[in-house]
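Lecture notes, unit on binding sites. The following record was shown on slide 14. It pairs a sequence with pyridoxal-5'-phosphate.
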Amino acid sequence: MPKAYLSRAELKAKVDKLPRVRMAHLPTPLEEMPRLSAALKGPGGAKGPRILVKREDMTGLAYGGNKARHYEFEMAHVRDEGYDTLINIMDYHSNNARMTAAAANKMGMRYVLVLKNAKGRPVQGNLLIDKLLGAELHLLDERESESAHDYAAGIQKRLEKEGRKVCLLQDHLEPRISGMVAFVGAGLELQEQLEALGIKKAHFFGVAGRSFCGLILTAKNLGLDWTFTGVTVTYDPPLDPYIFQHDQDIKKLLDVPVTFSKKDMAVLDGYVGEGYGIMTPAVAEAIHLAAQTDAIITDPNYTGTVMAALIDQIRKGNVKSDETVVFLHTGGLPAVFTFAEELAAWKG
Ligand SMILES: Cc1ncc(COP(=O)(O)O)c(C=O)c1O
């Protein structure tokens, strides 16, 4: 029995029926990276694969990134539940923290940001934008960061006593799955863009995360010949609680026949280096190479790591000349300024 796939229109209707606040500049472009491809060789001088980049760094919302799509769904939930205040707990150079600040401003909501490992950091990159956007910042040191949730819950209690209706984002399911739903939409966009280029088979490279799961869900429900290599950028949290345990939540929310599973994503976890937020030499090389070939700026924490993995996999011959690669650029651009000195000192 052939599998019964959804049509494009059926899957789109399932996404479109969910509450949504329009915030992102869509559709984002899909661009070729011919010069990067030409600069890369596999074993024996094999030529590089065709490489396309999906520009999720161009979604708007204070310097772009995947969260612009995510917040279209998450903010609808926050609004519909009647919240007037958001609390978010993130790491000091978080893109999520910045884009939540932008989304909260657009919704006219109060935004309290508890930033871990942030005390004494230079006000640069995302932290600078958080300030410009007027986030109410609580900068924690390393020791305080260990009990960041208690700290945030204390603020929540205080604000609720003052009569605010407060959503502490980490206590809700929606932030964990709205990004997946949003990227089912991105998957529909990609399917149309790839079809216009006559491309049926594609190999996606991206951060092993929620956005990637959304693309997988699109591919599986439409029966597309897409494969996925997800790159980890941190040792914490592990992928099971972060994404894989939500396979049924999204299936239920979208009411689709199939969901993603672990077997749909080849995971590369050898590119993290010393840890999240510490740039490796391979990532520095990748950032320079993508910039100096096709003028694509990637970041030291997320997309630069994926780019480093892609470059390495091509050089090792694990991605072949006849493949078409789609690099999912999920944003993160302000972080290049946080790493200004290291990046500028890089000699190659
Ligand atoms: C630039 C960038 N890419 C990818 C991710 C992973 O996000 P997600 O798991 O929501 O896809 C993040 C997370 O904050 C990010 O900032």
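Take-home: The radius of gyration is 20 Å.
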